[in-house]
Write a structure and sequence with these properties.
14-stranded mixed sheet; alpha+beta; about 350 residues; three-stranded mixed sheet; Jelly Rolls; Phage tail protein beta-alpha-beta fold; about 30% strand; 19 strands; 9 helices; 3 domains
Length: about 350
């Protein structure tokens, strides 16, 4: 049985209560354009069910993952036999009307990933905030990069000014969920039965086992860059959750906070996205204001300028050098002047080439 269909089939057998709530909710929406009161009642049932046991919330996230990874059906024909098995299982001891609707549910699991996106997104929020799960938070102080080994043996490099939160029982969770603020590089321990999910600002990134970098700084464009393996990224914000886009090595997903657009980009060398883990800084036509922010985080300094440098770009690479060498290079490139007073860098003048 193909991987995701096998997982789906097991979930349907093990989590009948979960699927019953989902089916009731979708039925309410389908019939007569949905009875608002009935929909609210079904949503309330699920919320109550979630509050009973933290494991229920993990199961719900697992269900969401199953729907998302089914956006692209398998290339071979083996799925047809497995699909017939699922259909037969769902057809036992149910009315014809329910059979027809549940058949559509199973078909959607093969051909689409968007049917439950908005519904699950709303329910997903308490999953991450639930006090029944014992969360651990690790933070990298200013000017420091730290290495973390999670309970499931996943390895993380956390950039300065960033934090990562994960459940204490991560290695036993059906869905290995972590929360990121800032930037981190991941080497995820492969475990096909327990997907790994990262929530970061507006994005949800899910994998089985791979290496990738997530940059999610407040107020900036979020990026997920893949070095090895395959990664699924979806928009995860107040505007709703999008269908996932799938990334391969040397590809990245970029989310524009202003347009709320999530796009896929091909890149020449994905490794540069993780250069910071080795103390390097790589800038490729990078906005100078963003360059200054990177310098502030890396060297634990504050930069004050007498102009905005709007539209100024910098292309340069620094291989773990000291602060003065970095500033001298920028000084020569942009004809600016700088002085350092304790933990503050003052920059005057300068022009864009």
């Amino acid at each position: 049985m193909p991987g995701f269909l096998s997982c789906l089939y097991k979930s349907m057998r093990m989590d009948q209560e979960n699927w019953k709530f989902v089916l009731d909710y979708l039925s309410a929406k389908e019939n007569a354009h949905g009875n608002v009161q009935q929909i609210k009642q079904e949503e309330k049932k699920i919320q109550e069910w979630l509050s009973k046991d933290p494991k229920n919330q993990q199961d719900l996230e697992h269900a969401l993952w199953l729907w998302q990874i089914s956006a692209v059906p398998p290339e071979d024909d083996d799925w047809k036999e497995s699909f017939n098995t699922i259909q037969t299982s769902l057809s036992k001891e149910v009315s014809p009307k329910t059979v027809k609707f549940r058949f559509w549910i199973a078909a959607a699991a093969v051909f689409t990933a968007v049917a439950l996106s908005t519904f699950f997104y709303r329910l997903q929020q308490p999953v991450l905030q639930n006090t029944g799960i014992d969360w651990v938070t690790k933070s990298a102080g200013a000017g420091k990069v730290i290495n973390i080994i999670l309970p499931d043996s996943t390895e993380i490099w956390l950039n300065s000014g960033s934090s990562i939160s994960f459940p204490k029982n991560l290695q036993h969770a059906a869905l290995r969920t972590v929360k990121l603020k800032g930037e981190a590089f991941f080497k995820v321990k492969r475990d096909p039965r327990h997907p790994f999910v990262v929530h970061s600002l507006n994005l949800r990134t899910q994998v089985l086992g791979t290496s990738f970098n997530i940059r999610a700084w407040e107020g900036h464009r979020s990026e997920v860059t893949v070095l090895t393996g395959k990664v699924a990224v979806s928009r995860d914000s107040a505007g709703g959750q999008s269908a996932a886009i799938h990334l391969l090595p040397n590809q990245k997903a970029a989310y524009d906070v202003h347009s709320t657009n999530l796009s896929l980009e091909n890149i020449g060398n994905a490794q540069t996205a993780a250069d910071w883990t080795e103390g390097k800084m790589t800038f490729d036509q990078t906005d100078l204001r963003d360059v200054f922010e990177v310098i502030e985080r890396k060297y634990d300094m504050k930069i004050i300028t007498d102009q905005s440098f709007k539209g100024c770009k910098l292309t340069a690479q620094f291989d773990n050098v000291n602060l003065n060498e970095v500033l001298k290079t920028i000084q020569l490139s942009l004809d600016l002047h700088y002085t350092i007073n304790k933990k503050t860098i003052y920059i005057k003048g300068g022009k864009c080439n």
